[in-house]
Write a structure and sequence with these properties.
Number of helices: 1
CATH topology of the domain at 152-252: Hypothetical Protein Tm1070, Chain: A
Distance between the termini: 27 Å
CATH architecture of the domain at 152-252: Sandwich
CATH superfamily of the domain at 152-252: TM1070-like
Number of strands: 35
Strand content: over 45%
Shape: globular
Radius of gyration: 21 Å
Length: about 475
């Protein structure tokens, strides 16, 4: 159990102060049927309960046993129950408490044994986020768990070429079994292997599929997961190098295509390869515009067409959109209302320290209130924190440290990051290892308009190799028990 001590300074209570918290869908465009595509929003602190599903990673017999990490941004301690589920069918539950303003990590593989182990977390209340972290300091990844299951999941990237492995984890948190079909888009076209149709996922069970056995040597694989009955949660895990020695990526899929996606910070480091995969699973071509902004360093836009049921890879380092080693925000917009799915991968300079490979999903919506967890082992520090403005006009943003004082959660302004002006062309960013409290304790980002937030972690061979999940809040909730 990890508790965070108070930081001296002004204590701020959010709630009755007039801050309005809301998710803002940046799609669909008028007349479109595209829906918001996020599945990891934090519920209101007033919620009676909240549930999270973590398909996980390798178990004790695998190389990357996952830790499930819970962050409590509500104003009081939360009781919870974690249920570990192995791919072999073993299940075991345990109670726990998440302190106000703190984080708790559990290794499900210590509860059950199996090649893969996932978990569900049932919390008595709202205001908490949950994420998975797997791997070692030389190759690790962090991904949000899902706060809601879905009948559809989409992945824009993944590869089985160059010695990479790619696994798809399917977990059914419901009371009825799910039947799942898989289809794929690669550089060679679309395919739906008969062996990957009608996959049975029993209620409460975890199924893991080695996609490399069915799709060998594919440079890029976009995946559509469709539950014909029931609902599921889906994640992918990719390992680069022998036994994942170069890096790994674990990410939660999108529940639907969307017309607008953002990556708050991307850096084309010298010698690296940064790619943005854009997947169009529909029957209609998608016309997309990519917009890269770096304040005074420049602005660049690109137009591309993604054919139906195909995936397009945009290599930012090849396009020279922004100067090398300069962080920039990136938006991908569908201009004709056809939804897409967007992910980014980063391969660092081969001479850089490990981990040198990672991937993350872009964000399909914005919000004015975000929960930012502390970096957790094997991560040890923050590389950078970025807040990008998606309102279309200047907004005011504050970064607040979440502290635990006498069993209550209180917010303390982070020096230099309180009531800062952010514009669409110039993000609020801390770079070059900003130090405590960024990365060392949970944070909240509160803005006067819609923003997106990203936290890159260390160790890492390049910016973007390891990205911590940041969680939008579905509704406002008190920052302390005294906030009404």
């Amino acid at each position: 159990m990890r508790r965070f001590l108070a930081v001296a300074g002004v204590l701020v209570v959010i709630g009755a102060a007039g801050v309005t918290d809301a998710l803002v869908s940046r799609g669909p465009v008028p007349g479109s049927n595209v829906q918001p595509a996020i599945a990891y929003a934090v519920s209101s602190g007033a919620a009676e309960s909240s549930a999270w599903t973590c398909p996980g990673a390798s178990g004790r017999s695998g190389p990357d046993p996952a830790r499930v990490v819970m962050t409590n941004a509500s104003g009081h301690a939360l009781d919870a129950t974690i249920t570990a589920v192995s791919s072999g069918g073993e299940r075991k539950s345990a109670p726990l408490s998440i302190p106000a303003g703190g984080q708790v990590a559990v290794v499900p593989a210590t509860m059950v044994q199996g090649a893969w182990v996932g978990a569900t977390v049932l919390i008595d209340g709202g205001g908490a986020s949950v994420f998975d972290v797997a791997g070692s300091a030389s190759a690790y990844s962090v991904a949000p768990c899902a706060s809601t299951p879905s009948t559809n999941w989409y992945f824009a990237g993944g590869s089985t070429s160059g010695g990479r492995s790619l696994d798809l984890a399917l977990m059914d948190p419901g009371d009825t079994s799910a039947v799942v079909d898989l289809s794929f888009s690669t550089g060679a076209g679309t395919t739906s292997p008969s062996s990957l149709q009608g996959i049975m996922v029993p209620a409460g069970a975890l199924r893991v599929i080695d996609l490399g056995r069915h799709l060998r040597g594919k440079r890029i694989i976009a995946t559509s997961v469709t539950a014909l009955s029931g609902t599921i949660v889906a994640t992918e895990t990719e390992r680069s190098g022998p036994s994942g020695s170069v890096g790994m990526a674990m990410w939660l899929g999108a529940t639907a295509p969307a017309t607008s996606w953002s990556l708050p910070t991307t850096t084309d480091a010298r010698g690296s390869l940064v790619s943005v995969d854009i997947y169009n699973p529909s029957r209609h071509a998608a016309r997309v515009r990519l917009r890269a902004a770096a304040g005074l360093a420049g602005l660049a836009t690109f137009a591309r067409t993604v054919p139906p049921r195909s995936v397009y890879r945009f290599v930012t380092t090849a396009e020279h959109a922004i100067a090398f080693d300069t962080p920039f925000s990136l938006e991908v917009l569908s201009t004709n209302g056809v939804g897409v799915v967007v992910e980014r991968s980063v391969s660092a300079n081969p001479a850089a320290p490990v981990p040198r490979y990672g991937a993350t999903s872009a964000m399909p919506l914005s919000a004015n209130h975000w929960i930012v967890p502390a970096v957790t082992p094997p991560g040890d520090a923050a590389w950078s924190l970025t807040v990008s403005d998606l309102a279309g006009h200047a907004v005011t943003a504050s970064v607040m440290a979440l502290d635990a004082v006498a069993g209550q959660a209180l917010l303390t302004p982070v020096p230099g990051l309180f009531r800062r002006t952010v514009t669409p062309s110039a993000a609020l960013s801390t770079v070059d290892m900003p130090g405590a409290p960024i990365g060392t304790q949970p944070l909240e980002v509160i803005a006067s308009g819609p923003v997106a937030v990203a936290l890159d972690a260390l160790p890492s061979g390049s910016p973007g190799v390891v990205t911590m999940p940041c969680f939008p809040t579905a509704q406002g909730f008190p920052a302390s028990s005294g906030a009404g």
